[in-house]
Amino acid sequence: MTLYRALKGRDTGAYWLTRKSAEQFLQRAETAKISESTPFFQNIVFESGAVELYWRHPAIAEQGSHSGKFDSLVTAHRVGRMRRPRWLARKAFQLYLRPFSTGSPASRLTGHLPGTRGHCRARGAAEGRIRRTARDRRVAWCRRVRRGVSRARSTPGRDVALKVLDPALSSRSGADRLLDEARLIAATEHPNIVPLYEVDHQGDLVSLVMRFFPHGSLADRLERDGALPPATVARLGIEWPTRSRPPTRRASCTST
Amino acid sequence: MNAVQPRTSCCSKHLVAYQRMLRDGWNDALVLEDDMFLSDDFVEALNRSLEELRSRAGIRADVAYISLENSGLRPLSKIATHEPG
Fold first, then answer.
1. Which residues of A are less than 8 Å from B36 in CB distance?
2. Considering chain B, what percentage of its residues have pLDDT values greater than 90?
3. Homologous superfamily of A122-255 in CATH?
4. pLDDT value for B77
5. For chain A (length 256 residues), average pLDDT per consecutive 10?
6. Is residue B51 packed enough to be buried (19+ CB in 10 Å), middle (13-18) or exposed (0-12)?
7. Cis status of the peptide bond prior to A241, with omega within 30 of 0
8. Four-CA torsion A173, A178, A184, A186, nearest 10 degrees
9. Based on CB atoms within 10 Å of each CB, which residue in A36, A63, A68, A81 is the most buried?
10. How far is B35 from chain A (nearest CA, A)?
């Protein structure tokens, strides 16, 4: 996997885009005065959702004025003698050390080497938020399954998945989109849609209590086993319309 | 004219590139600034990513934008969603 969804851009020296994306940028340029540089201008369009941004990782291009090979014509700032060595050291760390820092791709995204103070602090803060949310939701925290998702045990002894959207890592629009999605799921009853038991929105912290599936999601299975056989896909396609149910269940949604 | 800065010029050149895409009817384009250094396997790596873009579910490929460079060395932890595509 090389593409990662993002809401904000990084550098604009090399990118690929479609015609519709170009139309969206031009439309924005016609309706609003542009006083920002390219990355800031593009971020406005990305945040509106009109264009979907993906980061390619690892990157396959670098800008000479950033890496210290020569000066930029855009700014009057001169490249210092240490800029190039510093940039190369940082790049070497990201290329050769970070990929071996942890086992799973998700944990590689933490941005800290395991055992370092930053890694412990980030992990502790994330788990602390999940534990506090679990306590507020009156469920016994069991263990973290992946970033932002924990397996928990509710009061009647039922295993549930507690999904917490980290406010430090999300934008306001991300929380709003998650709430919209939660309302849609809550209004739907279907065997192929994960049941949503409860939605809680306190301040900037959004948490969902959902049914826990021990074998993971379809994305987990595709990542683990690769493409599904045609027969399995056909079976799922046949089951979908025949197992539909009218909406009968609604989850509770609280907001403070 | 005093308000026009080099970065404004840079931004307008990107917009001119988008206008040319529409004028010439290109379905997609690779935009490169003039100080880029490309990796040795740039073409193959880009093609792999484009293939992934078209084959993966849940991606609106018609309004996609792929950032290929990371000269600022920003780690993936800086992305807002923390979820692969």
1. 13-14, 61-64
2. 47
3. Phosphorylase Kinase; domain 1 (3.30.200.20)
4. 64
5. 82 92 89 69 84 88 81 64 81 70 40 46 56 57 59 64 62 66 76 76 69 75 80 77 48 44
6. exposed
7. no
8. -150
9. A63
10. 5
B69 to A13: CB separation less than 8 angstroms, yes or no: yes
For chain A, give every residue range classified as CATH 3.30.200.20.
122-255
DSSP, residue by residue, A188-232: ---TTS--EEEEEEETTEEEEEEE--TT--HHHHHHHH-SPPHHH
Chain A residue at shortest CA distance from B69: A61
- Cβ neighbourhood burial of B38 (10 Å; 0-12, 13-18, 19+): middle
The two three-digit tokens of residue A83, written as one number: 């800029």
| Nearest chain B residue (CA) to A175 | B81
Contacts of A112 in chain B (CB under 8 A): 77
Q: What is the reported pLDDT for A37? A: 67
Q: Is the pLDDT of residue B18 over 90?
A: yes
Q: Which of B37, B71, B77, B78 to mutate to test binding with chain A, by most A CBs within 10 Å of its CB?
A: B71
Cα(A223)–Cα(A52) distance, integer angstroms: 22
CA–CA gap between residue A208 and residue A197 (Å, rounded): 8
Interchain pair B83, A5: CB under 8 A: yes
